[in-house]
Amino acid sequence: MHKRALLQLIRKNAFKHQMVAFDTETTGLEPYFGPTYMKLLDGRECKAKGGRVFGVSLCDTELHTAFTRVDEPEFSVVRQILYSRKIRKIAHNYAFDKVMCDVSKIAVRGLFDDTMLMARLLVDWMPAALKFLARTILQEDTQSELAIKTDLKRRRSTYTRAGRPKGYVNYSFVEPALMEKYAADDARYTMLLFLLWKTDVIRQFRFLYNLDKTMAGICIRLTHKGLHVDIARLEQLHDECQTHVAGWRQILLDAAAEHGLPDFKPGSPKQMVEFLAACGIPDVYLHAGKKASVDAKTLLRLDDDRQLKIPELGAVLRYRKSSKLLSTYIKPLLERAKQGGGIVHPLWRTGGAKTGRFSCDHPSVQNQKKVKVGPDQRYDIPIDIRTVYVPASGCVLLYGDHSQIELRYLAADSQDPALLKAYREGLDIHQQAANDLGTERWKAKNINFGVTYGEGAAGVAADLGIPFAEADAIIRGWYEARPGVQELKNRREREIRERGYVEDMFGRRYHIPQKLAYKGINAAIQGGCATILKINMKAVWRDARLRQIAPLILTVHDELGFEIPRSDLSRSLVKYICRRMEHVRQFTQHGVGLVVEIKIADASWSKAEAYNAYFSSSRAR
Fold it and tell me: What are phi and psi of 328, to 5 degrees?
């Protein structure tokens, strides 16, 4: 059948059944960062600022499929289908496809369904990659993927020899016949998964699925809005970090030369083993299994060993941490900020983690942590990358952080009398634990959070720097004072042994191997807290007042970030945001309230201060 006739048939069926599956093929994975290159059908090559859609595949409910490139005349039919509000769009990772279509000026309108979000709910123990689901769930042969990768590898080799830069060749350069088969298969797999799962996901997870779809829509808008970055400050951090890397590298090279290793490369794990052995660390100390390990955890453990006094360990750890900070965070962020004119566009995803928490890439804002001080941070480089995130001109940044949300969730889920009393009466829960255990408050705080994160005696011993036996006794004492938590932990482990999964209070399931049953309580806590945050986001996003004067710009862990014009900032607005974030009826009905701490920043993310202090200063109205 001729392509135009096939597309007209798909269009007819799409309007008849009011749904169509679609999948985009793009020149890159970042919509706002490039350059990327697209090869047209006539052989010409064009350049774009970031990743762009070069073709779209469609599949109707009768499994007719067609892949059409944007430079084909028939693509006008595809535009009509995607533009219609009457046709429900079905995609695997709709948020990504929609963002890429937006920047490529391809309008996608109407309701949607997302088979990746369905997979996160119905088969959470499996990877959510489309090809994997096609092989395991649909029993499909995905040989078209192998064929296209082989063709792509050959073309990249040819273009590299011709002097083209790395990343020049992408899927738009692939043989058209191979690309058509590969892309059409993706749309067909998506439709088949939707038809298979649509009834089950609504029957079992209606609330969670609809919530996740709302979050996908919010992620699209957060990606387009972006975050403001101070390029001058970022360049300063780049130079500082580069100085740290060069300094610690030279120290390691000098030490290696003294030990007879003149050709030592600090980035090579194999040579690092040789270097540490030359420094006096017995090879057996580096073996946690069959293979020697020189990861940070192993080196920190060796550094804690008082029998080993190896000064080079500190240099290795500092070199590694400064190198990672420079190559993974600062350099990529600086490149994107310069290209975006001081604005970066993280690609946000809902359900990027198995617990349902948000994640983002390019840059990964979630992993840009505050500078801390503690046993595991003793070799951190004192460079706070959060100082480069700034408000837009004339605005301030406002952050709402849920205080002790994991412990509050644990209290609500376990209904433990001690925890419930502490939160209902406004007691200091960490001091309460310190009194129960006869220890200092900071240690009790570590233990409280360690238990909610699923840490055992070994983890607590490492955190507090105490013997294993002492840590084990402390944990047993903690559980004895909180029998409701002990009963919840036992119940979670029993559920995993009997049915293979646990559920949080919102109904999301977490399949866990029996040998890791002790992680059941933590999985439910993390997933439940993620759902609370999503309910918050939905409430503030749909609030007309906040949408107008306090738009949401990011979410990090248990925190929501807003950008507010300074002229609109007031105590009443702050209290209004607090009320919206603390009102989660599905959670508070269990007898524990939520508390949101507000911080405001004029200068940068890292300079945020408590809102009472902010309003008492001369900067506020």
Answer: -90, -30
* Among 175-184, 242-251, 270-279, 455-464, the least confident range: 455-464
> Quick one: pLDDT at residue 306?
53
Work out the mean pLDDT of the chain and round it to a whole number.
89
314 half-sphere exposure, CB direction, 13 A CA radius: 8
- Taking 80 as the threshold, does the pLDDT of residue 303 lie above it? no
Distance, CA of 620 to CA of 615 (rounded, Å) = 5
According to DSSP H, which parts of 503-570 are helical?
520-542, 544-549
Distance CA 503, CA 520 (A): 9
d(Cα 606, Cα 383) in Å, to the nearest integer? 11
- CA separation for the pair 319, 42 (Å, rounded): 50
- CATH code for position 492: 1.10.150.20
> CB atoms < 10 A from the CB of 119, how many?
23
Residues contacting 283, CB < 8 A, separation 6+: 273, 277, 292
Q: Is residue 94 part of a domain?
A: yes
Last-in-domain residue among 202, 225, 248: 225
**What's phi and psi for 7, nearest 5 deg?**
-65, -35
| Domain final position from 527, 556, 577 | 527
Q: What is the per-residue pLDDT for 229?
A: 96
- 3-state DSSP assignment of residue 384: coil
How many whole angstroms separate alpha carbon 378 and alpha carbon 382?
Answer: 10
Mean pLDDT of 146-158: 89
Own/partner pairs for 243-252, CB < 8 Å, 24+ apart? Answer: 244/318, 244/322, 244/326, 244/381, 244/383, 245/319, 245/322, 245/323, 245/326, 248/315, 248/318, 248/319, 248/322, 249/319, 251/315, 251/319, 252/312, 252/315, 252/316, 252/319
530-541, pLDDT tens digit by residue?
A: 999 999 999 999
- 395 Cβ neighbours under 8 A, 6+ residues apart: 563, 564, 565, 566
Relative to beta strand 88-91, strand 19-26 is: parallel
Give mean pLDDT, residues 480-502. Answer: 93
339 close to 49: Cβ distance less than 8 angstroms = yes
Q: What is the pTM of this model?
A: 0.90
